[in-house]
Amino acid sequence: xILTLHLKMANPAIMLKKRAIDQLKRILNEHAGKTIVLGTHxxxxxxxxxxxxxxxxxxxxxxxxMPDIYELWFEGTKLKRAxxxxx
Length: 87
Hints:
The protein is an alpha+beta fold. It contains three helices and two strands, in the order H-H-H-E-E. The protein has one domain (2-84). The protein has helices at residues 2-30, 42-52, 58-63; strands spanning 70-75, 78-84.
């Protein structure tokens, strides 16, 4: 029972991350080679960044100033660089 409850509580975050990543990959593929600007909530930004690079974890999320701005450079769907732009 406890395991089932825990899985039900974690499921929305897992589903959210999957939806966000699926959409980001779709956008990257549809607009390959172009400059893309996305706006999102800090939680989703961190989930997406973490998918591509595990250094963007809970500690990173806690350190974000929210609002925060990051410039992400991709080659295809591979994150090559992330630079914080908000000071």
